[in-house]
């Protein structure tokens, strides 16, 4: 099964995609994580993306489509994938349609994570991640069981994203509203759009996603 998790910054796409990947074996394809890996490696693409990501604007479509096209072609994606952060523009959605057609794959569901905008900045500003294994946490909503120690790998080293601040969130939200939100009618017209309540507790959001997937 191939799905898209669609929602604004901080909606919980990454949190739920990681859980699905662990439980169901579908592959999480996070374009944000891919860009951060490129930036960390100092690649030409990473250098090109750095300033754009820091500003909260969107990276050009051609770069993102190339990244996803290469990734979807990898053998592990044959068992199904979860797109997390892609597509984000109509051009990306159309390019995705074309690449799925070309490879004989199908988009089964697009799951909209519905959230109150007021909650998003708190979610994003409080987020931190284990620097070693990438497990995600939150100052208020998901603290490690032992303060300062990763539940998953025991590391004591954590990082915060430079774009996770209130100022950059304004630009990220504006980009979401102008460029990504129009994808909702695009997928509704295709008959693949479902909604879950992204304001619920993380376990409840996950339960709703599993219910939607079971109905696909
Ligand atoms: P990206 O990394 O994709 O960021 P994003 O879409 O802004 O999404 P986030 O990662 O901020 O949020 P999320 O929905 O995954 O939430 P999470 O689960 O972490 O993109 C970063 C940048 O890269 C973009 O701004 C752009 O520049 C560029 N980019 C990426 N893809 C692109 C593309 N396709 N085209 C162009 N440019 C692109 O949750 C957030 C926090 O809330 C966590 O701490 C979590 O613990 C907590 N939380 C989660 N769920 C709940 C809940 N139910 N209740 C309480 N807390 C919760």
Descriptive tags:
216 residues, alpha/beta, five-stranded parallel β-sheet, binds BIS(adenosine)-5'-pentaphosphate
Overview of the molecule:
There is one protein chain. The protein has 216 residues and is α/β, with parallel strands linked by helices. Helices cover 50% and strands 15% of the residues. The chain has nine helices and eight strands. A five-stranded parallel sheet has the order 2-3-1-4-8, sandwiched between helices. A three-stranded antiparallel sheet has the order 6-5-7. Helix 4 (61-72) packs parallel to helix 5 (90-103). The longest helix is centred in the C-terminal third of the chain and has 15 residues, at 166-180. The chain is globular. It starts with a strand and ends with a helix. The mean pLDDT is 96. Residues 7, 9-15, 31-32, 35, 52-53, 56-59, 64, 85-86, 88, 92, 123-124, 127, 136, 138, 141-142, 172, 201-202, 205 line the site of BIS(adenosine)-5'-pentaphosphate.
Beta-strand portion reads 5-15%
* Strands, total number: 8
Mean pLDDT: 96
Rounded to the nearest angstrom, the distance between the terminal CA atoms is 9 Å
Radius of gyration: 17 Å
Task: Provide a brief overview of the structure.
This protein is an alpha/beta fold.
Show the helix and strand layout.
Layout: E1 3-6, H1 13-24, E2 27-30, H2 31-41, H3 44-55, H4 61-72, E3 81-84, H5 90-103, E4 109-114, H6 117-125, E5 127-130, E6 136-138, E7 158-159, H7 166-180, H8 183-190, E8 193-197, H9 202-215
Parallel strand pairs: 1-3, 1-4, 2-3, 4-8
Antiparallel strand pairs: 5-6, 5-7
Helix pairs in contact: 1-9, 2-3, 4-5
């Amino acid at each position: 099964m191939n799905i898209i998790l669609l929602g604004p910054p901080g909606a919980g796409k990454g949190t739920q995609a990681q859980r699905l990947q662990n439980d169901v074996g579908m592959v999480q394809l996070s374009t944000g994580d891919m860009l951060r890996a490129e930036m960390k490696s100092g690649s030409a693409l990473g250098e090109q993306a750095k300033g754009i990501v820091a500003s909260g604007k969107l990276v050009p479509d051609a770069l993102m489509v190339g990244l996803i096209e290469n990734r979807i072609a990898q053998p592990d994606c044959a068992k199904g994938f979860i797109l997390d952060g892609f597509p984000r523009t109509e051009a990306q959605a159309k390019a995705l349609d074309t690449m799925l057609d070309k490879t004989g794959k199908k988009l089964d569901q697009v799951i909209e994570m519905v959230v109150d905008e007021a909650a998003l900045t708190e979610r994003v500003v409080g987020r931190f991640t284990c620097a070693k294994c990438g497990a995600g946490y939150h100052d208020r909503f998901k603290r490690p069981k032992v303060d300062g120690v990763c539940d998953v790998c025991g590391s004591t080293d954590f990082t915060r994203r430079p774009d996770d601040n209130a100022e950059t969130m304004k630009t990220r939200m504006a980009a979401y509203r102008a460029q990504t939100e129009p994808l909702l009618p695009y997928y509704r017209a295709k008959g693949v759009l479902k909604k879950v309540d992204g304001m619920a507790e993380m376990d409840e959001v996950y339960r709703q996603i599993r219910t939607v997937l079971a109905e696909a």
